[in-house]
Each structure stands twice: as structure tokens, then as C-alpha cells.
Automatic annotation (TrEMBL):
This is Sugar efflux transporter. InterPro entries: MFS (IPR011701), MFS_dom (IPR020846), MFS_trans_sf (IPR036259). Its main location: membrane. The keyword Transmembrane helix applies. It is found in: Cell membrane.
Length: 402
């Protein structure tokens, strides 16, 4: 493992991508846990109104990211694109510092969050191109390492955010988030090598019709369903611990921390296993572990059982996070920007759908039996994964005839 990891670190620009992913995760998580408090206490809106704000800003970037992805694979300068999008992310979070009217902030964030949304998938796409240019076969390990750095930043961010909030208030966490995005833009501008020139017309012709290609859209649907179940769990698990198992908020924090810490080594191990096993096989095993975890939650009666089950959940999350993007990229090796954006859009739509469906399921079925929804989503995803398709492992370089 050390030899393969060292080889990745020798790839030009790849260490910078790792550092940018760490900062990206930290920037998002510094403020994310405290936004609901900020909106309800500082701006005086209801929790439902904040939910609308979250939904609108999440969805605003989906269509634009896909539009940009096609252009980036068709010859748009990817480094320049990442710098611009990271700057837009910085501008977006700076809005929290200066704008204190909800409706003005909603319009402002919708525009600039959408403009900054392509930054993340373009980071993955640029890393994919760098690894491919080096002739390294470790694409999945490279993605696993990137995703691990993002997770590490996401774990450490709330701790930094809590310290900033106690000392500087909300202005402190928003200023720090803005600064980190600016640092990321500077890192990419200063140290990332420009990608090789492409042939725009050929790329545009190849990308035409991919959105109607079942062999592309079925994997997209699989990941969307899996992320829907994952976010439904994220929404309900804390309330399940407190209201059903009689736990405390400290128990909630412990369960979340255990899962998050185990995700990182699982991602790295999965990256190593990817050299031996196809990403589709690993994705299938992840679904099985996720389904077992959701079924376990339905039957648990003690907190320790749920804590033990975090091993299953951590493996599932590691698979959909690290292997999920490789699964899409391997199908579209000539279109890393489009593939990476397809993956991130699946996570975005899944996050929104999971929040809505998870809340509805908890209201109608109760916290425990809301996990029936998660089980059904995993079963449907596994069925789609195993559904026989013509040449399922063939890489897609040109669209199928419609």
C-alpha cells in the first residue's frame, strides 16, 4: 500500500488535489452544522423555511454543473474553471457576512452557490486526468484517497467551527469558510498544471445523447437511490437514538464520530481492493452491508447494538463515496468531467430526496420503521445493479443510438 500511495504522490498536481479536498471538506463543514441555528436565531426564520433555502440552493447547481461538465470535457480550461468556481464559493459564503435579509440572501446564494457547484466534480475530474496521464492504473485508489481527505476535513471542520463560533460568533465561521475557498483557488492557480488541449468538436459529438443512454443513467439512478437512503438515515438516526432508544445528545455525537472515523480506513482499503475486484462488485457488497445495517436498526433494542452496527454503515458509506465515483468514471473514461458531475449530482439529488422522504417516513411510520424505506431503496438499487444489460462492463466512448 505504501508503494502505491507513494507512486500517486509523485503524479504531478495530485498532492495539491489531496490538499484541496481536505480544505474543501473543512470549508463546508465549518459552517454546515451551525447554519440551521443561524437562520432560526439570527435571521428569525422557521426550520421549514430554512429547509426550503437548503433545497433551492442545492438544486440550483445541478443543471449548471452538468452544462459546465460537458464544456470542460469539450476543451474548456479545467484549471481556470476550478479557480473561478472556488472564487464563486468564496463570494457565496461572504454573502452571509454582509447580507442579513432572508430573501436577498436566498437570491444571492442561489446564484453564487450554483456558480461554485462545479468546483468539486472538476477536482475529481482533474485528478482523474492527472492519474491517467501518468499511466497509473490506480484510479480507484486515487479517488479513495481524495475522498478520504475530504472526509478528514469534514470531520475536523465542525471542531474548528465550534471554536470560531465561541470566540468570534457567526461572522467568524463565515469568514473562515470564505478564506479557505480563496486559499483553495490560490493553490489550484499556483500549482496545478493546465490540462492538455482537447478536440472540442469531437468531444461535443461524443457527449451528445449521453443523458439518454441507459448504461449511464441507470448507474446514476442507483447512486441517487443509495444516497437518498443514506441521507434519510442521517436525518433520522439522531432522533431515533434520543426518542426511541432513550439516548442522549452525547450518544448521538459518539455514534456519528465512530462511523466517520471508520469511513477513512475503509475507503483506503477499498482503493487497494479495487485493483483485484471490479468496482461493480465492490458496489454490490457495499449495498449488501448497507441493507443489513438498515435492517439491524429496525430490530435494535440497545444502544450498543447500534454502535456495533456502525461498522456496517461505515463500509457502506465508504463504498458509495469512494467506489461510487470510480464506477461512473470507469464507464466514461473519456469524459471525466461529465462522469464526476453525474456522481456529485446524484449525491445532491439524493441528499434532497432523502431529507424529504426520510422526514415523511418518520412522521408516518415512526423513527424505527422509517428504515423500511432505506431497506427498499437498497433492494431497488441492488436489483438495478444486477439487472442484465448488454455488455454491462464495456466502457462508453460514444453514445448509443437513440
Amino acid at each position: 500500500m505504501l508503494k502505491r500511495t507513494y507512486a500517486l504522490l509523485l503524479i504531478p498536481s495530485y498532492p495539491i488535489f489531496l490538499l484541496c479536498m481536505l480544505f474543501q471538506g473543512m470549508a463546508i463543514s465549518i459552517s454546515a452544522p451551525f447554519l440551521a441555528v443561524y437562520f432560526t436565531e439570527e435571521l428569525g426564520v422557521t426550520a421549514g423555511t430554512f429547509g426550503i433555502f437548503t433545497a433551492v440552493t442545492l438544486l440550483s447547481g445541478v443543471a449548471l454543473s452538468m452544462f459546465i461538465a460537458k464544456r470542460s470535457d469539450a476543451g474548456l480550461n479545467r484549471r481556470r474553471l476550478m479557480v473561478i468556481c472556488m472564487m464563486f464559493n468564496a463570494v457565496a459564503f461572504a454573502g452571509y457576512i454582509f447580507i442579513h435579509d432572508f430573501y436577498v440572501l436566498l437570491a444571492y446564494m442561489t446564484i453564487f452557490t450554483a456558480a461554485g457547484a462545479p468546483a468539486m466534480p472538476q477536482l475529481f475530474a482533474s485528478a482523474r486526468e492527472a492519474v491517467s496521464a501518468s499511466s497509473s492504473p490506480d484510479h480507484a485508489l486515487a479517488n479513495s484517497a481524495l475522498r478520504s481527505m475530504f472526509s478528514l476535513g469534514f470531520i475536523s471542520g465542525p471542531l474548528v467551527g465550534a471554536a470560531l463560533l465561541s470566540r468570534f460568533g457567526f461572522q467568524g465561521i463565515f469568514s473562515a469558510t470564505t478564506l479557505i475557498f480563496l486559499i483553495n483557488a490560490l493553490l489550484v492557480f499556483s500549482f496545478v498544471r493546465p490540462s492538455a488541449a482537447k478536440q472540442p468538436q469531437q468531444r461535443v459529438q461524443q457527449l451528445a445523447g449521453l443523458q439518454r443512454n441507459a448504461r449511464v443513467m441507470i448507474p446514476f439512478l442507483i447512486l441517487t437511490l443509495l444516497y437518498t437512503g443514506h441521507w434519510a438515515n442521517s436525518l433520522n438516526i439522531s432522533l431515533f437514538i434520543v426518542n426511541t432508544l432513550g439516548g442522549t445528545t452525547q450518544n448521538v455525537a459518539s455514534v456519528a464520530s465512530i462511523c466517520a472515523l471508520m469511513e477513512i480506513p475503509f475507503m483506503l482499503v477499498l482503493g487497494l481492493l479495487s485493483a483485484k475486484y471490479d468496482s461493480k462488485v465492490l458496489l454490490g457488497w457495499g449495498m449488501v452491508m448497507g441493507g443489513i445495517y438498515y435492517a439491524l436498526v429496525i430490530g435494535v433494542g440497545e444502544l450498543w447494538q447500534l454502535i456495533a452496527g456502525q461498522v456496517l454503515l461505515a463500509f457502506f458509506v465508504a463504498v458509495i463515496s469512494a467506489i461510487g465515483i470510480s464506477y461512473i468514471q470507469d464507464l466514461l473514461p473519456d469524459h471525466p468531467g461529465y462522469a464526476s458531475t453525474l456522481y456529485t449530482n446524484a449525491t445532491t439529488i439524493g441528499r434532497l430526496a432523502g431529507s424529504l422522504a426520510g422526514g415523511a417516513a418518520a412522521q408516518w411510520l415512526g423513527y424505527r420503521h422509517s428504515y423500511l424505506l432505506c431497506v427498499v431503496l437498497v433492494v431497488c438499487s441492488l436489483g438495478l445493479l444486477l439487472w442484465p444489460r448488454r455488455s454491462p462492463d464495456e466502457k462508453i466512448t460514444t453514445p448509443l443510438a437513440s
